[in-house]
From TrEMBL:
Record-linked Gene3D superfamilies: Luciferase-like domain (3.20.20.30)
Name of a matching Pfam family: Bac_luciferase
Protein name: Luciferase-like domain-containing protein
Keyword line: Oxidoreductase
Luciferase-like domain ranges (all copies): 4-140
InterPro entries: F420-G6PD/mer, Luciferase-like_dom, Luciferase-like_sf
GO molecular function: oxidoreductase activity, acting on paired donors, with incorporation or reduction of molecular oxygen
The keyword Chaperone is annotated on this UniProt entry: no
Length: 168
């Protein structure tokens, strides 16, 4: 097993956020972590986190998007690279490896994915997905672009079209 070494420890420690999806994990995050993480825009998780003592701590949301100039191609990319997304966390947490994920997601349909993950060049769809997290009470939202081959183009588009709209 490889060893890990920390050569230069920060004086104040490193803030740690904990992913949560329900009452137990929200309470753990509130008590032990410096912030909350969620990949679902669930206002109830934020509320549970706050009620358990997390009020005032940062809440990080992770919104998946699949940007590209052709929505049909983006939808195909989702099926190829992100088809496990509709499974809930209770299922995903129990899957031991890639073969299990493949089996659990074999019946995922393109339209199921596109209903929850914005696809294509329409900036309004991506902003709507972002706003679901803001409306749920998240203080920080990260975009996750599905598709390694399209990262550079996504970042250029985000700088040119998405970020100005979010900041405006």
């Amino acid at each position: 097993m490889p060893e890990a070494y920390v050569w230069d420890r920060p004086a104040a420690g490193v803030p740690i956020a904990l992913a949560a999806s329900g009452p137990s994990s929200s309470a753990l995050a509130a008590e032990y972590a410096d912030g909350l993480i969620s990949a679902d825009p669930d206002a109830r998780v934020v509320e549970l986190f706050d009620e358990a003592g997390g009020d005032g701590k940062p809440r990080f949301g992770q919104v998946a998007v699949c940007w590209g100039p052709d929505e049909a191609e983006c939808r195909k990319r989702l099926v190829d690279q992100w088809r496990w997304a509709p499974q809930n966390w209770k299922v995903k947490a129990e899957l031991p490896g890639p073969e299990s994920f493949a089996s659990a997601s074999q019946f995922t349909r393109e339209e199921d994915l596109a209903r929850t993950i914005p696809c294509g060049p329409d900036v309004d769809k991506h902003i709507e997905a972002f706003n679901r997290y803001v409306d749920a009470g998240f203080t920080h939202v990260a975009f996750v672009q599905v598709g390694g081959d399209s990262q550079a183009e996504f970042l250029d588009w985000a700088e040119r079209e998405l970020m100005p709209r979010l900041h405006g």
